[in-house]
Amino acid sequence: MRKLTPTFLLFILTLHLYGQVERDKALHFLGGNLFGLAGAGIAKNASDGNRVWTFVGAVAGSTLIGLAKETVDAGQRENGWDNDDLVATI
Predict the structure, then answer these.
(1) Which of 11, 23, 40, 41 is the most buried (most CB within 10 A)?
(2) CB contact at 8 A, 44 and 54
(3) How confident is the model at residue 78 (pLDDT cuts 50, 70, 90)?
(4) How far is CA 36 from CA 17, 53, 64, 88, in A?
(5) Side-chain half-sphere of 41: how many Cα atoms within 13 Å?
């Protein structure tokens, strides 16, 4: 019989939660992470490695791309502004 390790339980929980998350929200989350990473890199270089500004850059990068995406969506007839998408991106 297999012993249930914390890692195995986390894996099972992640699979279960992934099935419940909308694909759209998962893509927003991924995009926000990528642009947050870019924002963090820019802020880290600009601030000589200051951790607070690196964090601010990460949040700013994901916020900017989220606002841009929702602005585009708001102009589409079959789509629209979605605060849940914005939160998923940030």
Answers:
(1) 40
(2) yes
(3) confident
(4) 23, 12, 9, 12
(5) 6
